[in-house]
Every structure is written in structure tokens, then in C-alpha cells.
Amino acid sequence: MPKWENNEVEELKRFYQENNVPSDRLVKDKDALDRFATEFNRRVKHTPNLTPKEIADQLFKLRKSGKLPRIRK
């Protein structure tokens, strides 16, 4: 698992909230997660690009620690 910088984690939380799709639903939809990952990688310019799985893992980690904004749909 890659090392996430603080600015990347903060941008992930912002982009997740902008995306307005709950994490469970996002990771279950492969196409949606792929699009999310592509756009997130454009924003943060992480090298090498983070995979959709790495991003999903970080989302779940943030959710479990109570640091992921709540989205209710």
C-alpha cells in the first residue's frame, strides 16, 4: 500500500464529498470507482498513479476511523 501524503488524504476527502456517492456504493460499481480513481489521480498527480483498489482501501480506512465525511443517499 502506498504512503499517502496529508494533502492527498485531504483531497480524497474533498473529492469524495464532491462526488456525493457513499463509499459502499462507489466501490461496488467498478466503472464508477475507475472514473473516481482517474479523476482523483489527475487532481493529486501521485506518481505512480494510485489504483482504484488503493483508493477504495484508503476510503474504507478513513471511514473506519470516522474521518470520512458522511454522505447519505
Task: List its salient traits.
mainly alpha, 4 helices, 73 residues
Number of self-contained structural domains: 1
Shape: globular
List the helices and strands in order: HHHH
- Strand content bin: under 5%
Mean pLDDT: 93
Quickly count the helices: 4
DSSP E strands, number: 0
By secondary-structure content and strand pairing, the structural class works out as mainly alpha
Q: Biggest sheet, open or closed, and with what strands and sense?
A: none
Distance between the termini: 30 Å
List the uncertain runs: none
Q: Roughly how many Å is the radius of gyration?
A: 11 Å
- Percent range of helical residues: 55-70%
List the helices and strands and how they pair.
Blueprint: H1 6-19, H2 23-28, H3 30-44, H4 52-64
Helix pairs in contact: 1-3
How does this model look, in words?
The radius of gyration is 11 Å and the shape is globular. Helix 1 (6-19) packs across helix 3. The mean pLDDT is 93. It has four helices and no strands. It has 73 residues and is mostly helical. Helices cover 66% and strands 0% of the residues.
Short description:
This protein is mostly helical.
